[in-house]
Design a protein that fits this description.
Layout (H helix, E strand, L loop, with lengths): L1 E8 L3 H21 L1 E10 L3 E4 L6 H6 L18 H7 L4 E4 L11 H10 L3 E4 L2 H17 L4 E2 L11 H7 L5 E7 L2 H11 L4 H10 L8 H4 L2 H14 L9 E3 L7 H9 L2 E11 L5 E11 L11 E8 L3 E8 L3 H20 L6
Parallel strand pairs: 1-2, 1-4, 4-5, 5-6, 8-10
Antiparallel strand pairs: 2-3, 7-9, 7-11, 9-10, 11-12
Helix pairs in contact: 1-12, 3-4, 4-5, 5-10, 7-8
Bound molecules: nicotinamide-adenine-dinucleotide (NAD) and L-homoserine.
The site of nicotinamide-adenine-dinucleotide (NAD) has 30 residues, from α1, β2 and α12.
Function: Catalyzes the conversion of L-aspartate-beta-semialdehyde (L-Asa) to L-homoserine (L-Hse), the third step in the biosynthesis of threonine and methionine from aspartate.
Protein name: Homoserine dehydrogenase
Organism: Pseudarthrobacter psychrotolerans
Length: 350
Amino acid sequence: MTTYDIALIGFGGVNRTLAELVAARGDTLRSELGFGLRVVAITDLRLGSLVQPEGIDLGMALNMDGASGTFAAHGGSADTINESVIRNCTADIICEATFTNPEDGEPAVSHVRWALESNKSVCTTNKGPVAIRGAELTSLAEQNGVHFEFEGAVMSGTPVIRLAKKMFAGLKLNGFEGILNGTSNYVLGRMEAGLDFEAAISEAQKLGYAEANPAADIEGYDVQLKVLILANELLDAGIELKDVQRQGISTVTPEKIQKASREGLRWKLVGSARRNVDGSVTAGVSPVALPLDHGLAGVSGATNAVSFETDLLGAVTVSGPGAGRVETAYALLSDIIAMHAARTGAAAHV
Ligand SMILES: NC(=O)c1ccc[n+]([C@@H]2O[C@H](COP(=O)([O-])OP(=O)(O)OC[C@H]3O[C@@H](n4cnc5c(N)ncnc54)[C@H](O)[C@@H]3O)[C@@H](O)[C@H]2O)c1
Ligand SMILES: N[C@@H](CCO)C(=O)O
């Protein structure tokens, strides 16, 4: 049976949870999916680097939290030597889950590039490389005969990108609108319930929804990247970050939320893109007070939803978890399942 060796670049909430899944469910995955997974390298800013071609003891790695020392105590290095690890380790697949940088996508863009250049496939939940260098990296993967998968970059493990590419064949997509950030949606809901902004953010951080810098969620940068990804992947928009107008929810005060509630409205952070008559695409993200009977008004907590406007079916809506460690680790697993299916011709349902 095939075993894929994987390297985890960034060992925070998402990749730790993937390691937990591999440790706890390895046998089930093997029998149900027809392949095994073995972690052969891990790097993290707080822990350093560890490469063990025979397989890393995941119990040991998962017990390390940065306060308890670095990988130097386990035969690795205290330094985060990403380029050398990514290029030289024996992994078949690099799982990239470091911080999203909404400005230029670095250093994750380089992590992905080094992997693809050294003929390793990549799965990532990091929005930066996909939004800012997606076309270039996809083409590099194709040239090198490897895979670049990023389902978790939009709506965590909820299938959206692959689903839309496969299931909407024969339909023309004219646009989409959706709730694409779990943290801001969670915060708006908690504020409507009477919590103050800081307390609501703190809850979202504890639940593993928020970015390392939650301003990325609150000020709309995260949705800006996701709109860019969906517009380019699904509408073939050919647009750049500067083309996606951005406004976050920091202007939505508790008073505005209570007033909207009295008027039968609910504030939501809505990301959208629409194809214009001349073929160009207009895209943006901004807070909107939606009537309660609007399809997106009832989407609550860290749930996300995106409604695609199609020519033959009208609106088709996909809804599901938009954030969360387990939900996003599953996205990486679904990427690996898709790679396996492409390699073997096995049916993939993800
Ligand atoms: N948590 C979610 O719900 C979710 C959902 C979808 C996408 N994402 C994306 O997935 C990625 C990971 O999310 P997370 O929740 O695990 O974040 P996290 O902050 O918990 O973990 C990120 C880890 O990456 C490490 N890191 C940062 N820069 C690094 C570098 N240059 N080299 C090695 N390690 C580095 C950090 O030390 C940290 O441990 C982010 O890009 C995030 O935007 C997260
Ligand atoms: N911080 C993001 C994670 C998912 O990309 C969110 O809250 O939606």
